[in-house]
Predict the 3D structure of the following.
Amino acid sequence: MSAHKYELMFIADPELDERGLKKLTEQYLELVTKEGGSVEGVDYWGRRKLAYEIDGKTEGNYVVATYAAEPATSAELDRVLNLNESVVRTKIIRKDAK
């Protein structure tokens, strides 16, 4: 098994402040490092207007992170992000796919 490169984008609740957003992000990316993966970068895009309303929200805090991990770790990250009520949307893209 070898690690693959991924890009994670998630949209968090617009009510989260910067500290809360960073804490939330670090909490989830810790899952990657605990499983032997590596986080290559995190980019906080800040609060932006959503293309369409999601769960009554018109804005969200956008975060983009790049990391390397096993496919199972990525699947687990996606699963736990979807369980969190502070996370409005999530998308994980494998970057090294042919």
Remarks:
- The chain has one domain: 4-94.
